Amino acid sequence: MLKELDADSWVSERRSSLDDVSAPVRDIIENVRNNGDSALYEYAKKFDKIDLEDICVSREEIDSAYEEADGRLVEFLIEAEARISEFHELQKREDLWLREVQPGIVLGVKTTPLERIGCYVPGGRASYPSTALMTAVPARVAGVSEICACTPPPGNPLTIVAFDIAGVDEIYRVGGAQAIAAMALGTESIKPVQKIVGPGNTFVTAAKMMLRDYAEIDFPAGPSEIGIIADDSAVPEFLAADILAQAEHDPNSACVLITTDRGTAEATIAELKAKAGISPRKEIIFAALENSGYIIADDLADAVSLSDMIAPEHLSIQVRDPMSVLNRVRNAGSIFVGPNTPVACGDYASGTNHVLPTAGYARVYSGLNVSHFCKTSTVQMIDREGLTEISDIVINLAEAEGLHAHADSVRERLKLRK
Amino acid sequence: MLKELDADSWVSERRSSLDDVSAPVRDIIENVRNNGDSALYEYAKKFDKIDLEDICVSREEIDSAYEEADGRLVEFLIEAEARISEFHELQKREDLWLREVQPGIVLGVKTTPLERIGCYVPGGRASYPSTALMTAVPARVAGVSEICACTPPPGNPLTIVAFDIAGVDEIYRVGGAQAIAAMALGTESIKPVQKIVGPGNTFVTAAKMMLRDYAEIDFPAGPSEIGIIADDSAVPEFLAADILAQAEHDPNSACVLITTDRGTAEATIAELKAKAGISPRKEIIFAALENSGYIIADDLADAVSLSDMIAPEHLSIQVRDPMSVLNRVRNAGSIFVGPNTPVACGDYASGTNHVLPTAGYARVYSGLNVSHFCKTSTVQMIDREGLTEISDIVINLAEAEGLHAHADSVRERLKLRK
């Protein structure tokens, strides 16, 4: 059950080395590079035990996936998609803004979507139609023209439906490192993409890291985590429920309860003891709880510092005044404020994205959002008045750097003699 | 002199392979990893022919760099810094925005700066104090607490002054791949950074790409480029001046003139013939013009399509109605609109950043900006009303994915029975 933890060592233990898989992943990449589609069929047989007829999921197959799926779940996916779209629309920036910073000098930024991206949705221990929404919706909202998606064969019907609801243009039955290689390098069936997003196991993550020269990625992501900041006002039943929800994801998932109140930690552990054993996923939960623990903080400021060191993928704030804690937090993938905001809401339906950096990467990376699918160009528009105003700086700094033709390009406009 | 070009083949030729340098760069990285500072002193001696006493530039040395530098140039750097700061301040997003998307469901985004970043400024063929400003100012504007900078020994005084003006906290005399390794991995003197930005030669770029697991980077950047879209209203003298300014950077620089008017191309070539030979950097210019050329476009729409294929680092628009061309452009690092906006202005003083993606990478990457030094956390705050509203979706999708404890974490709040 939860043990007392040290924040520092916890983070270093979360970074799983990709070295163990780098040799097989390199082989997979080379096979896909050299043999294209035929390597994908080979791996479907080898890893997924399936003799595929076609890696591409046809329109007819998408339509039958709708028929096969529970109609009520399809409705829920449509509703979830609408909520996720709504929040991601709020993130969009104007296509072009321009500002006259001084007479004759107009500066601005133009934002344009990427042209073609790839979503990866794992099969693995469960099927994840929610992840199909989370990876594809921000790309569609950003305005990406071609969204391609891969998921391991045979392809879960609800996942295929979710891709379709999200607006994916092409769906392929390809899993693992071979899916990443196919989207990054291209095959006969799959055109290469500019960026690949979505979670996966260490093979998928290693392939994403190795192929960044070909296709940019969102960020490295590993097993799921929760950090909770709680004071003595927190409800131990809620804390335990959120910990169990995180723990059931994967044996390598981890949970850290940071609390100013030892009694709250003890009551939460008692609650976990009572409930962990009755879950249908209890083996996974018990394994994940081995990676988990609690930390007693001196006060809430200390709790935030500890949490910032850990930079949890999900941070739940269950204290009397959660806004004051929110204001101090620096490092977290997604933040859940108050007792009635279980992480599960963000996983499915509040509208925020659940593709988030883990293992301390939230110190550097943002969770998946619309800006992952856009790039910006700066813009400047200068007239003779503006050019005259800055000509001295440009000419002199250019000459100081030995770039005389730079200086001349200004002189030529103003017909200045050297 | 400029030859007629094909846009497609041009792009593939711009991506210089990093394979040639990967073995020596790997050795440098391992040496820095294993031997820390002593490897840095060793390389200063070997590559820069300098017996360094200290890799760290002291406050006293910064002060004497100010004294050594031309006072007028220091004033110009201060003025350029103010303009760059002003434009980058306009890019900042609010620290936290929250929106009630429906009763009881508040969503938002919290933006926080990175904690520690590294700037690299090359020495090479020229000294680049302007690049010191361009790399450090966006980080300072973003609110980064610790900005560290490396530049090859002995360290150009004006570059050191520029780092100081920009608000850099630590300056080190380290160049090349070893500087990237030191900032990514850390040594006795240099604490590791979260992200490394700034241009460099193939050694520097290869090291940045190899060390992305340790420190994120801005983007791969190679030799400088200009694309120009011109119609028959363009002034050939201005076109030639901008081409020469680009060509003087590096023998591998490249310039592409895309014009709807063959006469404009011919007049520009005549102008280049007249002027290229009288430049003090003529060897570099002639070499760069070998990589350069012109394309005759059917019309301006075709010109924009060709330019988008090339995705030039700098795009100059010199046509009758430049705004209509600007509105169509998708792929370019920085866009210079109209006849009186030479690229040189953006290199030094308009306020936009000159650290930009090259070799077609502008299709995927943004030029350096404030968001490179920030990350975001999504925020959600739900009350019982909001939770009740979305509980059906969350519970049902969670159960469909086999994640029962996720469903329970909602039920527990609402005290719903299964």
From TrEMBL, chains A, B:
Pathway(s) where this gene product acts: Amino-acid biosynthesis; L-histidine biosynthesis; L-histidine from 5-phospho-alpha-D-ribose 1-diphosphate: step 9/9
UniProt-listed Enzyme Commission number(s): 1.1.1.23
Residues binding NAD(+): Y120, Q178, N201
Pfam families, A to Z: Histidinol_dh (PF00815)
GO BP annotation list: L-histidine biosynthetic process
GO cellular component: cytoplasm
Active site: E313, H314
The reaction(s) this protein catalyses: L-histidinol + 2 NAD(+) + H2O = L-histidine + 2 NADH + 3 H(+)
Residues reported to bind substrate: S224, Q246, H249, H314, D347, E401, H406
UniProt-listed SUPFAM superfamilies: ALDH-like
Keyword Kinase in record: no
Keywords associated with the record: Amino-acid biosynthesis, Histidine biosynthesis, Metal-binding, NAD, Oxidoreductase, Zinc
Needed cofactors: Zn(2+)
Top-rank taxon: Archaea
Residues that coordinate or bind Zn(2+): Q246, H249, D347, H406
Molecular functions per Gene Ontology: histidinol dehydrogenase activity; NAD binding; zinc ion binding
Top EC group: oxidoreductase
Cofactor binding summary note: Binds 1 zinc ion per subunit.
Entry keyword Amino-acid biosynthesis: yes
Record-linked NCBIfam families: hisD
Function noted in UniProt: Catalyzes the sequential NAD-dependent oxidations of L-histidinol to L-histidinaldehyde and then to L-histidine.
Family: Belongs to the histidinol dehydrogenase family.
Protein name: Histidinol dehydrogenase
